[in-house]
C-alpha cells in the first residue's frame, strides 16, 4: 500500500521498536470509528484512535498480483463504539477500512498497511468478527450485459435515468400501524392505486432506524385499509409516527416502463428477444413468414 516511510523504516531497523496498529472505519452514513491496539489513545489523520475497544486483527494477506487481499478484525461489542443492533441493521456493510502500522512514540511515522471495505460481519459471544476485503475485491464483480426480455436496470439508476423526484412516484408519510417491522397499515393512500408500490422500497426517513430500508413484497387493499408488506423486516425501531418514504415499484416489463413511467427510451431489456421455443422450432410450410416482430 505504498512505500515505507524512511523514518519508520529506520525505527524498525533499530531493533527496539514502539509500533502498534490503528484502524479507521468510515460508514456510508458518515459516521467514523477509530481504534488502536496501543494501551493509550492516538491522534492523527483528523481522528482520535480509541485504545479501549479491544480491537485486534489477524495478519493481513497481501499480494502483488490481482488476488483479493483480506484479513479479519476482531473486537468487543460496546454501546460506546460498535453496537450489536447496528451490525444487525447492516450499517457497517461495505464500510471503508484503513489500517496503519504506527510508531506510537511519533505518530508522524506510520505506514498505510491496508485499505479496503468490510465484507461479512458477524457477532460471536459478545464480540464481533469483521471480514476485511482489499481494493482488488471489486475485480470479483461480474461485468457485461445480460440479454433478456426484462429490464436489467434498477429504477432511478444511471441506466434507467428515471427521475424519482417527479410528483406522483413517491410518498412520505407517518407510520400509522406497524407490525413486526414488516407490515405497515394505513387508512388509505389517496392518489396511489393498489399494487402501485409492489417491488418498490420503503425508506425510513427519521427516528432510530433512519437510513434503513425494506423492499416491498405486497401492496394491497383490504376493506378500508391499505397494507404494505416487506420481504424482510426493518431491523430497527419504526414505531407509530415515524416518517417513511414509499417509492414506486417496477416489475421490469416493457409495458410498465411505457405506461407507468413513460421511460421506454431508457428500457434496458430486449422485449422482442425470441424465447427458447422459437430457438428450437423447425421449419414449416404453413403460416406467414414476414420477418417482422414475433410479439
UniProtKB/TrEMBL annotation:
This is Bacteriophage phiJL001 Gp84 C-terminal domain-containing protein. It comes from the Bacteria. InterPro entries: Phage_phiJL001_Gp84, Phage_phiJL001_Gp84_C. Residues 196-277 form the Bacteriophage phiJL001 Gp84 C-terminal domain.
